[in-house]
Amino acid sequence: MKKNTRLLLVSLLVGSLVAGCGKAGAPASTESSSGSSSGSTVIKIATQSPLSGAQSLEGDGIRMGAQLAVQDRAEDFKKLGFDIQLFPQDDQADPKIGVSNAEMLISDPDVYAVIGHYNTGVAIPASVKYEEGHLAMVSPANTGVELTEDGKKSVNRLVARNDQIAPAAAKYAKDKMGAKTVFLAHDKTSYGQGLADEVRKAFKDLGVTEVGYEGVTAGEKDYSPIVNQIIAKNPDLVFFGGMYAELGIIAKQAREKGFTGKFMGGEGLESNDMYKIAGPAAEGIVYATVVSDIRSEEAGKQWVEKFKTAFNKEPGAFSPFAYDATLVALNGLEKAIKDNGGKKPTREQVEAAIRATTDFNGLFTKVSFDEKGDNKHSQVYIYQYGKDKAEFIGKATE
Are 260 and 237 in contact (CB under 8 A)? Predict the structure, then answer.
């Protein structure tokens, strides 16, 4: 018998024993369908982000940001009689896995909130499940307009939407980058195409001439077909709706073929891995993002050092907002516990308390959710890649 087969049989046997203990051998449960469990003092805050694969650098940054917030507030909840735990899940940037994870999280009565996702294309289908289970979601990164347009009570986000980012980015491109002609490209995802379509409308309103509009398949290693189109059209600007991995390859190949125009995109282009992928072609790439320069103030510098001490790593692009998103979730949870007489609340109570968040001062952003779950205080910022790091330019509207 092969080793893997023996391990599989052992796993199945253990799983069946655990499952049996959870039924006939367990005492009568006092759980409600909405997640209240009077017999447990454990409360789990889940994360959903890619912890493996090409986008794991940023996905793990979200996990670590949330973990730091949980650690910072653990003692407060211990005084209330509860053990707060982080429960990270790897959605692998895959909608099907994100949905499967969401169903698992809903089935666990100790899970009261989800911090995630990194990809809007994963967040949207997973959010349908969260809504069904009254499991509150606070997103530190998703910008797709559709996420909060369906009136879900469970779905909230800290960051600006694509229909806020796009006009600001397009105006900056025209006024500051001198763009008169633009070639639009996207990665066919909910996030990437959604952003490209919103920017397309904004450029049209500003009188910038569109010379091309194409989608690419994420994960390819060679983008010669679209690069050849860019070379032929020779636009002032290529705007890419998508992630750093794809734009890095496109920029590198385009520069190698002599393209001298500029590149721009959204927050999906924000990653230190851009230099590994694009090489010297990374320099000059501009992106509009929802994350400000966390090192511009002393509190941010101190937090970065705290993060590095905790994890021996630099924070990811969305680690700060994952930290604040988790603080928002924990603030709502704390309020729900106190309003419930110090007892473990239902998921509906936590869901309502988080949505009611008003003028909450996170470390990096102020948070007030509107009726859709969007943050009234969200902003759009501009960065440009220099020789060895992305440099903060300022607010897009300045």
Answer: no
- Inter-helix orientation angle 95-107/120-133, to 10°: 20
Which of these, 186, 193, 195, lies nearest to 165 by C-alpha position? 195
Nearest to 208 by CA among 241, 184, 191: 184
Tokens coding 341: 């007489």
d(CA 107, CA 295): 40
Supply the DSSP symbol for 375: B
How large is the average pLDDT for residues 256-284?
95
Alpha carbon 107 to chain centroid, angstroms: 23
221 token code pair: 């290693």
| Distance, CA of 269 to CA of 202 (rounded, Å) | 20
C-alpha neighbours within 13 Å on the C-beta side of residue 289? 28
Q: Tell me, what's the pLDDT at 39?
A: 61
Residues 6+ apart with CB under 8 A from 211: 181, 182, 183, 233, 235
Q: Rounded to two decimals, what is the model's pTM?
A: 0.80
Q: How far apart are CA 142 and CA 320, in angstroms?
A: 14
- For residues 212 and 186, the answer to whether their CB atoms sit within 8 Å is no
Distance (Å, whole) CA 175 – CA 179 = 8
Residue type, 321: F
Q: Give residue-wise pLDDT tens across range 199-210.
A: 999 999 999 999
Non-local (6+) Cβ contacts of 225 within 8 A are none
Kindly state the helix (H) or strand (E) to which residue 7 belongs, with its residue range.
Answer: helix 3-21
CA angle 397, 158, 62 (to 5 degrees): 115
Mean pLDDT, all residues of the chain: 90
**Cα gap 33→31, rounded to integer Å:** 7
Sign of the CA dihedral with 54 first, then 90, 379, and 153 last: positive
Judged against a pLDDT cut of 60, whether residue 26 lies above it is answered with no
Q: With contact defined as beta carbons under 8 Å apart, do 144 and 119 qualify?
A: no
- Provide φ and ψ at 239, rounded to 5°: -105, 125
